[in-house]
Design brief:
mainly alpha, 109 residues, 46% helix, 6 helices
Amino acid sequence: MQLKKILLMNGLKEGVDYRLEPIGGTSMRLRGMRENRDYKAAMLNLPFSLDAKAAGLKSLGRATDLIGPYQANGTFVLRKWGQANRDTLERYIAGVVEGTPTPPAAPGS
């Protein structure tokens, strides 16, 4: 959805200017763009976006800069499992927080 919105903001309409070719997760999308010149765009997160830049692919920019904040991913557990595995869940959440890069400050803040 985010990619379609970004492409539309850049004047491209689905079915007119492009068609979607779902090929899998981020690593598969990058490989597809590197190996098949028919694949022109994909949403890529770190470190794949860095690999794409190193391969000479161009970026339209960060999705949050182009369309604003959005929920990119999430993790879910059953409440019963979470209660039974509280320590594991807390360590997991701490690891996610520790491993998530801090976004740069918004302009003017």
